[in-house]
Amino acid sequence: MNHSIQPINKYKNIMLIDDDDVDRYISSRVIRSASFADNIVLKSSAKDALTFLEKHSSEPSELPEIIFLDIDMPGMNGFDFLEAFSHLCNEIKTHCNIVVLSNSLEPDQAIASRARNNPFVRKILNKPLTLEALEVS
Question: Is 123 a domain residue?
């Protein structure tokens, strides 16, 4: 009898905010193949992500534990998102940990420093997301 062992996902809910369809697809595939989360909420804009968070603010079990945030997006960029995030209710701010995604191998030092100095940013990772990056998260 062959009993396959199902991998145990590290997180229940995560959110991926990225305006680039290809990057969003690659990152979501990596997250799924790593069994990193039960559910992935994909958002193509920071504004849509904020709407989702506000809508679920009274349902902590629906909030993402990790938010992967692309910094370079048109309209509302990642830093604009972080500013708006800072004004959300405490339940959201304490439940959600933000990981900034950078699309350059050597992120611009001013951008990296600004992201590192934000109290809600836990880590900065390069895009595209890799299995190795998730393993050390």
Answer: no
Residues sharing a CB contact under 8 Å with residue 100, sequence separation 6 or more, in sequence order: 69, 71, 78, 115, 121, 123, 124, 125
Q: Listing from the earlier edge strand, what are the strands of the sheet with 97-102?
A: 37-43, 11-17, 66-70, 97-102, 121-126
Q: Give me the residue label for tokens 């708006």.
A: 84
| pLDDT tens-place string over residues 1-13 | 444 555 567 899 9
Q: How far is CA 36 from the centre of its chain?
A: 12
Query: Taking a C-beta distance cutoff of 8 angstroms, is the pair 73, 48 a contact?
Result: no
DSSP SS3 for 59: coil
In total, how many domains does the chain have?
A: 1
Q: State the amino acid at position 70 in one-letter form.
A: D
Q: What is the pTM of this model?
A: 0.90
CATH code, domain with 82:
3.40.50.2300
Q: How far is residue 47 CA from its own chain's centroid?
A: 14
